[in-house]
Amino acid sequence: MKYLITGGAGFIGSHIVDELMKRGKQVVVYDNFSTGKKLFIQHHRDNPNFKLVKGDVLDQNLLNKSLAGIDFVFHFAAHADVRSGFENHEIDHIQNLEVTQNVLEAMLENGVKNIAFSSTSSVYGDATVHPTPEDYPFQPTSLYGATKAAAENYIYTYASYYNWKAYIFRFVSWIGERYTHGIIFDLMKKLKENPKQLELLSDGTPKKSSLYVKDGVEAIFTIIEKAEEQINIYNLGHTEVLTVDQIAGIILDELEAHPTKKYLGGKVGWKGDNFFVHLDTRRLNKLGWKPKSTIEEGIKKTIDYLMEDPNLFK
Amino acid sequence: MKYLITGGAGFIGSHIVDELMKRGKQVVVYDNFSTGKKLFIQHHRDNPNFKLVKGDVLDQNLLNKSLAGIDFVFHFAAHADVRSGFENHEIDHIQNLEVTQNVLEAMLENGVKNIAFSSTSSVYGDATVHPTPEDYPFQPTSLYGATKAAAENYIYTYASYYNWKAYIFRFVSWIGERYTHGIIFDLMKKLKENPKQLELLSDGTPKKSSLYVKDGVEAIFTIIEKAEEQINIYNLGHTEVLTVDQIAGIILDELEAHPTKKYLGGKVGWKGDNFFVHLDTRRLNKLGWKPKSTIEEGIKKTIDYLMEDPNLFK
Asked: One Pfam annotation, family name (chains A, B) (predicted)?
């Protein structure tokens, strides 16, 4: 099997690449390095099984060429900043939906019959069932969530039309090594700028689940190995949830910081954010997977990683 | 309240226009007449409450101008041919999803806070629960269904972002006066061309529900008057289902035709078609609505209408 990973130089994508390389697979990373980093993949540079294509998923021609001979596509390139969609109504549509259709067309062009896709808990929006199961209907409150949901719909249809196998993963926030943005990053950055007062966007009560990246990668490969439907839709999350205040507390403890806290917002941190994110992972657990790290352990590993980022904290 | 109806010269749209005009409302029909017909709206031409804009929903400038002063948009323009999406992967994306985002942007530009949208049973694809309730997850097997589902997702998000009121109607096939395409049309046309043998695309066993247009219009106005959520999602269908063979039988009886029947296909009539379409309408029934016509009565009225179409059968 030969694999291509869009967004393969990104946070999650590069961990998929590592796992595939470890398994001795042939791997093509397709990335435009808008948020992906060479640093995350450069250790494979001299491996003959590894190939890098610097390209944009909007470039249909290059994408078509790059999928020649590929058996399996991980489509993990995305506009992963949930917040900005409220101000910019085009970016999620283009970067999450249109590029997905480009990938599907390139698969068709090249006879590729397997796709794995990084979707999100945001498709459920402000779900009223917690933990939220996979058959909960889409109720996205952000264009990020709406365009990921739409991309799922398109994948569902192409897989039905052409009898492909599809794996759709609905992620909570991932944390751990190579984490590049999100609440831990934001809070650490703020603390660096002002160690005396920490501003939180919400009132501190929003509840979120997170998943440590190595647990997440294990979940993905468990699903691909064991899930037997033609179209396999799985929540990836943690049984635990932490409030924003608890997350901040872990960071402050770990950094031995003692700022006063200032709450700027209400029940959500920004327009389109969801107050309570907790996914039902029983479908995944039935395949034999459980997270090995607690969320607290994952946050600590993330802090350790970020502390070593020379651009951020040194 | 001033209303704009995209696709207002189409089959369903023009019936919405009739009802609004009957209620003395100010109405703007926005239609490019690609499938809509002047004939369907010309009886309002001299009414001062009526205005016609010949325009395409892809024309963002004209759409923005046309929504000035509007309070409520019925977005009913669509690429309504489910079948062709298998061959043409762009048309549904553009005509169902991109135009919907254009409508949403025009609403934002003009401060319009109410939208009604014509969605479809096709969002459920090959549902395994029958009749299928509104909280069944999207599993579209056609790009028509996928793009309508995606448009729903976008409407959900814009309504959440800007606190709009939204009404999403998931329709089974509509039949009745001004019906322009679908199985009744196809079978009558075939009979005209060859009265001795009638070809059916499937094996005759697919089960479909249909709704007579006057019942459907009544359902839509019942929902708009009585539904109290911010985002209101309703199935519109019939408690009855008929097989393709039963539908053909009603047509043959009504036309007193006695062809032999030839079955061309299997369980579905074309790639992406769904074998069993039956929507759970209890949510709508709770608002006090029931269909007044049986499906058989609706089919007969459709046949009567089509028999008078000078272009088709005279």
From this structure: Epimerase
